[in-house]
Amino acid sequence: MSYKSDKEQTVGRPEPEFKFSIGTIVFIIIGFIISWWNMLIIFNSMQIWSYLTIIFTTIIPTIIIALKNRLWGYGYLLGFALAGIPFSIIEDLFVGWYTFATAFFIFIILWLIFWKTWRSLSSIRQV
């Protein structure tokens, strides 16, 4: 007797294309605001611990947001990174580009891990 499993395959499942939804745009705006606030803290205190706040305000919220919808997490990181560009023009060149580079680097790492690798797993057939 053969038994068929009705369980949904989660590993290697094809992922949908990257699409901007209203939720992604909302989280881009939220990421932009939080990034600006974080850069003001860095700019006003200029202490070593304040530079580490970028790591905590990108990774922890992104993981929490991405548990609901991964594209929203990407939106948050993009908004966080994009806020560094106008901040570097208006306030401080170093803090703005440091924020942009750090958040964009984290975005690229997460995108490569969870987008490209996950798609390559879909080509592996499971028994």
Structural features:
single chain; 127 residues; mainly alpha; 5 helices
Report on this model:
- With 127 residues, the chain is mostly helical.
- The chain has one domain (22-121).
- The protein is built from five helices and no strands.
- The chain has helices at residues 22-45, 48-68, 70-82, 84-90, 93-121.
- The two termini are 17 Å apart.
Give the terminus-to-terminus CA distance. Answer: 17 Å
Helix content: over 70%
Using only C-alpha atoms, the radius of gyration works out to 18 Å
Mean pLDDT: 81
Number of domains: 1
Shape: elongated
> Beta fraction of the residues?
under 5%
Structural class: mainly alpha
By DSSP (H or I, 4+ residues per run), the number of helices equals: 5
Q: Which segments are poorly predicted (pLDDT under 50) over 5 or more consecutive residues?
A: none
The ordered H/E elements are HHHHH
Write down how many β-strands occur, each being a DSSP E stretch of 2 or more residues: 0
The biggest beta sheet is recorded as: none
Give a brief description:
By secondary structure, the chain is mainly α.
